[in-house]
Amino acid sequence: MTINQLKYVLALNKYQNFTIAAEKSFVSQPSLSMQIQKLEKELNIKIFDRSKKPVETTEIGEKLVKQFQIIISESLKVKDLINYQKNKIIGNLNIGISSSLESTVLPLFTDSLLLKYPDLNINFSTNKSRLLYDSLKSNELDFIIGITPSNINDFTILPLYYEPILVIIPKNLKNDNSTEIELTEINSKNILVPNKENEFRKIIENIFPSASFNEKFKNNSLETLVNLSLKGNGISLIPYLTSLNLRDKQKAKVYNFKTPEPSREISVIYKNNTLKKHVIEEVFLLIKSSMKKIKNFTDVEIINPNN
């Protein structure tokens, strides 16, 4: 039994396809298949049912997969432990970032991060928060940059940034000359919202609980909804960092809510028992410093999505 064989089993369990599992494992398909067969012969059990399409993991295979995840996780800790004892910032660092933050947060610190830690092999993965947490639990990721979760155990949360939620109101829907908006002044039926599975949609629902929204435009792209709003098709909510990418003429239609401004909290999240804590905390300070250069907000009310 080898670590590589266990990794191949986990890959096939995840992708349920020999070709894809081999590609993701950077080996040929025959080699991956042969190594899994050797392991099955050694253990005298069938881990996978190859007669099913897609390939299915057997009942005993499911139990072994969970054990293999632990074994691989522990094996990876050997190098982490050595680096930790030597206080070295080297090795691999796998960072997950919520897809709702990728375009605004990632560009703020990547150059500084790669410049400061040239000996770190840094990899970025973007996905929905739910999938990122699955990867963090299975040790595929070392930490996540995302909206602060609620009711989550076994994780350390380091808040990075308070990001206000702003509102775009086109001229045809603006009733007065006020530059700051009360939440009660907004008719929620004019608010354009993403589809229900969208993380930002959940924040909007928490800002306007039990409200009805304008759902004529079935779209999951915040950029599309913002452009529709700028053209006079409704009101849209927009994160502060996203608003920085608008042109000056467009920014004239963007308003702050009165304080405390509804805001989302962006954090670094990692497992409590990680041996890369010293690396993660150093990287956290670098990212936090990069974000402070934009603008700081303190008089806020945190409105994060419920898990």
**What structural category characterises the helix and strand content?**
alpha/beta
Shape call: elongated
Total domain modules: 3
CATH class of the largest domain equals Alpha Beta
**What portion of residues is helical?**
40-55%
User: What is the residue-averaged pLDDT?
Assistant: 87
Main sheet specs: 9 strands, mixed
Which segments are poorly predicted (pLDDT under 50) over 5 or more consecutive residues?
none
Q: Please state roughly what percent of the residues sit in beta strands, choosing from under 5%, 5-15%, 15-25%, 25-35%, 35-45% or over 45%.
A: 15-25%
The CATH topology of the largest domain is given as: D-Maltodextrin-Binding Protein, domain 2
Any idea what the CATH superfamily of the largest domain is called?
Periplasmic binding protein-like II
**Number of helical runs?**
11
* H/E element order: HHHEEHEHEHEEEHHEHHEEHE
Gyration radius, in Å:
23 Å
Number of strands: 11
Amino-to-carboxy terminus distance: 39 Å
Q: What's the architecture of the largest domain, going by CATH?
A: 3-Layer(aba) Sandwich
Subunit organisation of the chains = single chain
